[in-house]
């Protein structure tokens, strides 16, 4: 226990991406967890290269009124 696992990959990336869709600031412990995941070399390699076309080009997306 206490080691990095596949669950951390899925949850860490999901929380990292969710920041683009929610205006709520994550709890300090959750923010720290995401920062630790994002600091891992494999996580950084998974991100687009500088100048590469992005799927999500803005920092935040409002939820549309439906």
Describe the structure.
The chain is mostly helical. The protein contains 3 helices and no strands. It has helices spanning 6-18, 28-38, 41-46. α1 packs across α2 (28-38). The chain is globular. The termini are far apart. The relative contact order is 0.16.
Could you name the key traits of this structure?
3 helices; mainly alpha; 66 residues; globular
Largest sheet: none
Counted by DSSP, the helix tally is: 3
Strand content: under 5%
Q: What sort of overall outline do the alpha carbons produce when their principal axes are compared?
A: globular
* Residue share in helix: 40-55%
Mean pLDDT: 77
Distance between the termini: 43 Å
Number of strands: 0
Name the structural class.
Answer: mainly alpha
What is the rounded Rg?
13 Å
Order of helices and strands: HHH
Ordered list of secondary-structure elements with their pairings:
Blueprint: H1 6-18, H2 28-38, H3 41-46
Helix pairs in contact: 1-2
Describe the structure concisely.
This protein is mostly helical. The chain is built from three helices and no strands.
């Amino acid at each position: 226990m206490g080691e990095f696992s596949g669950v951390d990959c899925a949850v860490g990336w999901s929380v990292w991406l969710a920041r683009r869709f929610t205006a709520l600031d994550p709890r300090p412990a959750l923010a720290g967890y995401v920062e630790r995941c994002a600091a891992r070399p494999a996580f950084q390699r998974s991100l687009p290269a500088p100048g590469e076309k992005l799927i999500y080009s803005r920092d935040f997306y409002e939820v549309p009124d439906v």
